[in-house]
Design brief:
Elements: E1 11-17, H1 31-45, E2 54-58, H2 64-80, E3 83-97, E4 100-103, H3 113-116, E5 118-119, H4 120-129, E6 132-143, H5 154-157, E7 166-170, E8 173-174, H6 186-198, E9 206-208, H7 209-228, E10 237-240, E11 250-253, H8 288-304, E12 309-313, E13 319-323, E14 328-331, H9 337-350, H10 354-368, H11 371-388, H12 393-396, H13 399-413, H14 418-427, H15 434-444, H16 447-450, H17 453-465
Parallel strand pairs: 1-2, 1-3, 3-6, 6-7, 6-8
Antiparallel strand pairs: 3-4, 4-5, 7-10, 9-11, 12-13, 13-14
Length: 468
């Protein structure tokens, strides 16, 4: 499997900071323009976007038709040469009127939102025309309390029928807490920190979308908690195309270590709240509750995402199978079956496309054609066949053993084992209620938003118990 991660020359951005509308907004909305300007600096300096491939519309240039024209132009460019990565950033108001969502632009009039704002459906239709391997939509939209933080129907964008690797990252706040700081919002500040590598764990050199989103969520919750307590802190949200359609793609790389400074349009000395408190002067500790929540949040998205796995041939004829977490398995003629089994087990848990990784590796080994590689190829194929398929009932002569195998896999690996268990049931030749199985398969991709993973597994175990 080749590494298809970020190629900066094929990266594009459209950044919108609505700013303060003349008669419609208070002065705090001016920060949204500064947010977009500072995000541009981060994309150029950290993500290595070509500056000429970033279009920015702020304040008086963030009128409805101007914003739409930039997105249309990008759709036209990518129709001929698809992009590798596109980032759309919008900082402004969001509204919901009559069941429809709207993004407010600099020339939007509150008295006529429906005609002067961008209707959410139109916005999504334009985004779906953009051809890109990866699309990240970042929304710093303040909105009326109780309204969704995404000013459009997210399923219209996060839809497998569209394109893979669609991600929406939202600031997730209501209007009364929309701008807690100056000169940029807390959300934008944390976003720039994360893109600059502040999200790194020990030894990291790449900023991935999942690590960025988790860092921003934890950082914003910690900073806003200082201002809003005892109220609920602001918590950014990550929304992705689930069901194995989203990879943990790379946004920035720092092979030579972290940058020596953050980049801001003006000298940055403080992160000040509305009452003048400088959050950067405070020795903040992440609250235990936020740490626990972030851990659970990570588990949810790890189960949904593809872990990008790369295969690299070394000079000595061996193959390195490396996942995005840095785990490496070295495969060579003398490798033991135990190591191969460990590799299969690890990839099954961490990469929803693990079988594609294995097929790519087998193709490389097959091309080597020496006796040792031929023997290795046969061993791997046997192990793969054992793991990737279930024996039919007439060969097992024991349905109970098969069901116990499935239940044990769920007990050992939890929700991450669900795709494998469903596949084994489907190809096993066992008798089961087809309609119930179809419902379980359909629910697998949405269960974490409609019910807990534990509840889904209980349903699946009951179904397994009824197999004959």
């Amino acid at each position: 499997m080749t590494d298809k991660r970020s190629t900066t020359q094929k990266s594009y951005g459209v950044l919108v900071g609505v700013g303060k509308r003349d008669e419609e907004d208070n002065n705090a909305m001016a920060i949204s323009a500064a947010d977009a300007e500072n995000i541009e600096l981060a994309l150029v300096n950290f993500c290595k976007f070509p500056k000429e491939q970033i279009k920015i519309r702020i304040s008086g240039e963030a009128k409805k038709e101007m914003v739409l024209e930039e997105i249309r132009a990008l759709a036209s460019i990518t129709s001929n040469a698809p992009a590798d990565l596109v980032i759309i950033y919008f900082s402004g108001h969001g509204y919901k009127i009559g069941g429809k969502y709207y993004l407010v632009c600099n020339d939007t009039q509150n008295a006529d939102i429906q005609k002067t704002a961008i209707e959410g459906g139109d916005f999504v239709n334009l985004l779906n025309e953009i051809r890109s391997e990866k699309l990240l939509v970042i929304l710093d939209c303040c909105h009326a309390k109780g309204m969704t933080e995404i000013p459009f129907e997210k399923d219209d964008l996060l839809n497998p029928a569209s394109q893979p690797n669609r991600v929406v990252l939202t600031a997730c706040h209501s209007s009364q807490v929309s701008y807690l700081s100056r000169p940029v919002s807390i959300f934008t500040y944390a976003l720039i920190e994360g893109l600059g590598g502040k999200c790194f764990l020990s030894g990291d050199k790449e900023v991935t979308i999942l690590e960025l989103a988790l860092y921003v969520r934890e950082r914003v919750a910690t900073l806003s908690e200082q201002v809003l307590r005892p109220s609920e802190p602001q918590k950014p949200n990550l929304n992705i195309l689930k069901g194995g359609y989203t990879s943990n793609f790379v946004l920035a790389r720092f092979p030579n270590g972290l940058p020596k400074k953050m980049f801001f349009k003006e000298p940055f000395q403080s992160l000040a709240t509305a009452d003048g408190k400088n959050l950067l002067d405070m020795n903040l500790v992440v609250p235990e509750g936020i740490i626990q929540e972030t851990t659970a949040y990570r588990a949810r998205f790890t189960a949904w995402m593809i872990t990008e796995t790369t295969i690299q041939q070394s000079g000595d004829g061996s193959i390195n199978v490396k996942d995005s977490a840095g785990n490496i398995f070295n495969v060579h003629n003398g490798v033991s079956d135990d190591i191969i089994n460990q590799m299969f087990s690890h990839l099954k848990k961490n990469d929803k496309e693990w079988f594609k990784v294995m097929q790519a590796m087998l193709e490389i080994i097959q091309k080597q054609r020496d006796p040792g590689s031929t023997e290795l190829l046969e061993r791997i194929k046997k192990i793969e066949a054992t793991i990737n398929s279930a024996k039919p009932l007439d060969e097992m002569n024991d349905a109970t053993a098969f069901k116990n195998e499935l239940l044990a896999e769920l007990d050992d690996n939890g929700f991450s084992a669900v795709p494998t268990v469903l596949k084994k049931i489907e190809i096993s030749g066992l008798k089961y209620i087809k309609s119930s199985f179809a419902n379980l398969r359909n629910d697998a991709n949405s269960s974490l938003t409609t019910l807990s993973p534990d509840s889904y597994i209980v349903r699946l175990k009951v179904f397994i118990g009824m197999i004959k």
